[in-house]
């Protein structure tokens, strides 16, 4: 089922003309979830036509359209000319399709080939963050099974966006990434429709709480001692996964952070993605000038939690793998 398939507009009373694009866009920007669903349903055919003209028939064209629908969900607040929302939607599909062609079927995430600059106050995410729609989307993502939820959060909300990077981060084949994203889109289409009128978690609060935790963790690393409230989030059963792990050994991240601090290496928080069960911290890594063996310039903390306590941590170094 497509993300943008909703109840048909003809269900409205016969005496009432369908609302114009500009009206629906303004209602969507004000947080009315059904209005955006109607816009996506109305422009479904021209969006698909753009994808087919560039990618031909096949799953890549459908992926490009579905990614465009998710982009619209996040960035509807960026539309400056509500009457031209159709052209805006087609442009997103066109950009997605061209990036697929340039990247050899392996596309970046919603915001292009590079993570968006988080310091720009006018970025579309911050506009959308003013609206309830943001919470609706993220709450639907939270209801996905954990394997699907993880790939969606990486793909659409973090800087780890290419299929290859996600495969590396999750330790799964690239084909499995594509399969899980396809499953997630199908489930999201149903979840978004069935949860549109429900109350949802405040994503701003979750994200801000996670940001404060990350900053406290980094400050503790600088001081050489973590606060008790941070240590309590890392129980004895926490597992470190991936390239930094040692088989059969529990390795807490704080000793490694202490060793890096002694070498003059620091981490600086760049971006936070948070839900009730998955946390993603993206860091810039600063090595001392002239260091003979400098660290990679960025890394990502990928955490799975239960009752806020970290169950697993995987440290990922974004970039081409293999």
Structural key phrases:
322 residues, alpha+beta, Nuclear Transport Factor 2, Chain: A, five-stranded mixed sheet, 49% helix, 12% strand, elongated
Description:
This protein is of the alpha+beta class and 322 residues long. The protein folds into 2 domains: 9-200, Rna Polymerase Sigma Factor, Chain: A (Orthogonal Bundle), CATH 1.10.1740.10; 204-316, Nuclear Transport Factor 2, Chain: A. Helices cover 49% and strands 12% of the residues. The chain contains 13 helices and 5 strands. Strands 1-5-4-3-2 form a 5-stranded mixed β-sheet, sandwiched between helices. Strand 2 and strand 3 (278-286) form a beta hairpin. Helix 1 runs antiparallel to helix 2 (33-42), helix 3 (44-55) runs parallel beside helix 5 and helix 8 packs across helix 10 (174-194). The chain starts with 20 loop residues before the first helix and ends in a 6-residue tail after the last strand.
SSE topology sketch:
Blueprint: H1 21-29, H2 33-42, H3 44-55, H4 59-75, H5 85-102, H6 124-128, H7 132-142, H8 146-157, H9 163-170, H10 174-194, H11 203-223, H12 228-231, E1 239-241, H13 253-262, E2 266-274, E3 278-286, E4 298-306, E5 309-316
Parallel strand pairs: 1-5
Antiparallel strand pairs: 2-3, 3-4, 4-5
């Amino acid at each position: 089922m497509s993300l943008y398939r909703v109840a048909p507009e003809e269900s409205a009373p016969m005496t009432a003309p369908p609302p114009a694009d500009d009206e629906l866009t303004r209602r969507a920007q004000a947080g009315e979830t059904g209005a955006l669903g109607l816009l996506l349903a109305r422009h479904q055919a021209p969006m698909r036509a753009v994808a087919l003209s560039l990618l031909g028939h096949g799953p890549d064209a459908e992926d490009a359209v579905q990614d465009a629908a998710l982009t619209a969900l996040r960035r509807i607040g960026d539309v400056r000319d509500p009457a031209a929302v159709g052209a805006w939607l087609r442009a997103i599909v066109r950009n997605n399709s061209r990036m697929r062609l340039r990247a050899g079927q392996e596309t970046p995430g919603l915001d292009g080939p590079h993570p968006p600059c988080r310091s720009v106050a006018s970025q579309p995410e911050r506009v959308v963050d003013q609206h309830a729609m943001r919470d609706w989307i993220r709450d639907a993502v939270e209801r996905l099974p954990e394997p699907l939820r993880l790939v969606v959060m990486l793909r659409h909300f973090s800087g780890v966006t290419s299929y290859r990077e996600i495969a590396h981060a999750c330790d799964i084949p690239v084909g499995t990434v594509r399969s899980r994203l396809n499953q997630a889109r199908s489930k999201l289409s149903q979840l978004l429709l069935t949860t549109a009128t429900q109350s949802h978690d405040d994503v701003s609060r979750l994200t801000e709480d996670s940001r404060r935790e990350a900053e406290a963790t980094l400050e503790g690393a600088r001081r050489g001692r973590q606060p008790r409230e941070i240590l309590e989030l890392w129980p004895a059963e926490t597992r470190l996964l991936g390239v930094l792990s040692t088989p059969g050994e529990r390795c807490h991240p704080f000793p490694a952070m202490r060793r890096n601090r002694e070498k003059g290496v620091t981490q600086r928080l760049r971006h936070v993605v948070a839900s009730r069960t998955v946390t993603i911290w993206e860091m810039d890594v600063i090595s001392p000038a002239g260091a003979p063996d400098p660290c990679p310039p960025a890394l990502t903390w990928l955490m799975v939690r239960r009752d806020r306590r970290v169950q697993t941590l995987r440290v990922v170094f974004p970039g081409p793998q293999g």
